[in-house]
Amino acid sequence: MGDTSLLILRGRAVLPVGRPPIENAAVVVRGERIVAVGRWRSLSAHYSGEVSDLGDVVILPGLVNAHCHLDYTHMAGLFPPRKSFCDWIKLITTEKAHWTFSDYADSWIDGAKMLLRTGTTTVADIESVPELLPDVWDATPLRVLSLLEMTGVRSRRDPRAILGEAVQTLNSLPAHRCAAGLSPHAPYSTPPKLQTFAAALARRRNLRVATHVAESGAEFEMFTQGRGEMFDWLRRNQRDMRDCDGRSPVQHLARCRALGRHLLAIHANHLAPGDAARLARKKVSVVHCPRSHDYFRHREFPLRTLTNAGVNVCLGTDSLATVRKHPKRDLELNLFLELRAFAARHPAVSPKQIIRLATINGALALGLQGKIGELKRNACADLIALPCREKVADICDAVVHHSGDVTASMIGGEWAIAPK
Q1: Which residues 6+ apart lie within 8 Å of 254 measured at CB?
Q2: Which end of the chain has fewer CB atoms at under 10 Å, N or C?
Q3: What is the set of domains in the chain, with CATH numbers?
Q4: Could you tell me the pLDDT band of residue 104, with boundaries at 50, 70 and 90?
């Protein structure tokens, strides 16, 4: 008689990510955790329990989406690419003013459904409408890290009051599968003191913080040259521009004491000499969003500079408000599409390394290394299955170029999408 507490998942192959692919393999699950990963013949001799043969699939960790805006899912296709980054900011700000609470809730939930069926099991999401929490958490099986968005430049409110409201939200949230953190929006849109206060709170309470930094040439010019379209626009809106004194956006965050292992630096497209080394020393993770990068036609992402310095780089989808329309495909939040877009722009990076960007590296960025993003003993049983008939040597390439929905998805040992 088998051990009824065990579930043994068998597939054509298993891709643990931290180890090479395994042919004719299995994953043994007990409760929320993985007990063992290995060849079917070996595991079936040592473990007995319920066997679920998934057939011609590769089983791999659920994808980790390190940056998303679920609130904006229903903005898909509303904004054709603009020549100016500032023009895009004005457009989305105007659009948001017309949205209701229900608009945001429906958008969030539909975005979560897209991520789930396309392989994401954990997402770091910027939450601009904190009133949605925690109800939307209960509407999805995803692991969600909701990072509470804060600005303050336009409102000119006291940074302590802004942070105090975020803390009230944090303290009001129940214990849950999901969690929350902070997101001072960007150096150009948040007062320096808000960056400093948020970082200090994150260190005290072990919170994650996400900040859009050095995303555009306009932002880089504003801080380093004290001029340009963004500088002029924000000065007209009475932003205090004294912090635009020749330092880069990354150096600005360093001056605010905002750099640290708690920080997810979103985009980081424009770096001054020494910025990558500074990020690496402080163990900051950088999140790259390939399709959003293409939408804005940003300069080449400084991948080699960052990785040579030792920065942890991971991937996110960003929002559908910054994805180009495709004539033959509906817009959707899909991390596999980001993998393929990344592969097309960085052909020298191996498929194995690309997969790490959306699994192990994302887990490290969220402080969940060893728990998600890889299949190994004692890790969370967060995994997905994809159709697979390739040879073991070709599995990583097949995963990177996967299209369509996943065959199955498990989060915390429970089927989020049950195998058929």
Answers
A1: 278, 282
A2: N
A3: 6-62+373-417 (2.30.40.10), 63-365 (3.20.20.140)
A4: very high
